[in-house]
């Protein structure tokens, strides 16, 4: 249901035109409150992104990656048709334009990389049918899931997307059930639909299946979750997760802990797999301040198992995953919301993560550390309301892989079409 497109042709415009003119194409009975047309929305998110990465030591083929690009992300959706089962449609269009990627510095993840460098532009469009009824939502087509076992990566210019079928159901106020099958994905710097594969491996699986359940209690402050996922003939994974929020005085404690258990599945095309990842994070939020302490430990002879470029919910998975075989790590993090000081929209984050005891073919008791600083401002009112500016500085040092100093600068502005 999705295909690459060349944005300079009228195809992108036609996708938008179809979305905007949907009211002319549907029966009059659908155009009512809570209806197909009345509840339709569309937003064009613009994103100007600069990336610079300087690599040192290890197996470094290119010492510097630097690119600058402009991105446009159209996200729209109809409401639902009347009836017991409502039907609707969501659309997504992605277009990236190269502003600078010369002098051999391509390959940052902002733009596709070819033998001749980065193309002048790239993009794709996709759609998903959606069905709603009996407290259940089903989507079939291209989408951006955000789940503990598969999460869209949106850390560069354009978001990663997946094609498949997903289901979310709320049979009770205290219970949410999930299920899905994903068949292909389009990475953040690609226009192609690719078969899914495990992080660090090119071996692909025919599809990715998952089931999940979330149980809530104590006015929603306590949550228990169980997830099971399988990349066919490659790996199977279970996640057990517990979160709890406890108000105390003028602040709130939050505990988020979980265990990933991963093994080979089916024909085991990637070989035998054995990894268990135990993580926990304890935070305290008061006023504009949030402090967090994170601990993480991996067991078993293999690295953490997951889909390529899909972030996890592990506490110490920040930029680096800290997910090598036997690795232990700890994190300290501080966030401040300047609204508490009279500057709403301005936030800052500082993180430090240290890992050790990494066991690899090129490392015995390998060590690594990461240091991050993020500053972000979102305009709160006026003509440029919701315009955002963010700066991220990231450093990684390692005894067994390349070290990295990274700078990211992003300006984003959402244009609400309707």
Automatic annotation (TrEMBL):
The lineage of its organism: Bacteria, Pseudomonadati, Pseudomonadota, Gammaproteobacteria, Pseudomonadales. GO terms for molecular function: porin activity. GO terms for cellular component: membrane. It comes from the Bacteria. Keywords: Signal, Transport. Residues 1-33 form the signal peptide. This is Outer membrane porin, OprD family. The keyword Signal applies. Belongs to the outer membrane porin (Opr) (TC 1.B.25) family. The keyword Lipid metabolism does not apply. It holds the Pfam family OprD.
